[in-house]
Write a structure and sequence with these properties.
Blueprint lengths: L1 E2 L20 E2 L7 E5 L2 E4 L3 E6 L5 E5 L4 E4 L4 H8 L4
Length: about 90
């Protein structure tokens, strides 16, 4: 298992990283979905673009034109899913 936040390897039965306390996910799991906010999970293939906002915030624009706010705490997970630096 790999930690979402610090990318360290942890035990397979763990729910949280013992190094940073973040939730973990399996490295075998496809990264098709990413949580961008407390109540929002998006399919990576549906993202058209990511726009920077003020004060380090970002917004995701979906293919259908819907605009979703990205929580600052979820930015790193979005960067990993898209393979880009925001």
């Amino acid at each position: 298992m790999t930690c979402v936040k610090c990318q360290r390897e942890i035990e397979a039965e763990s729910s949280y990283c013992r190094f940073c306390g973040a939730p973990v996910r399996s490295t075998e799991a496809p990264r098709r979905f990413v949580r961008i906010h407390r109540s929002t999970i998006v399919h990576v293939a549906k993202i058209r673009e990511v726009q920077p906002l003020t004060h380090g915030d970002h917004a995701v624009i979906l293919r259908d034109g819907k605009v979703l706010r990205v929580a600052r705490s979820r930015r790193q997970a979005l960067e990993l899913a898209l393979g880009v630096e925001l």
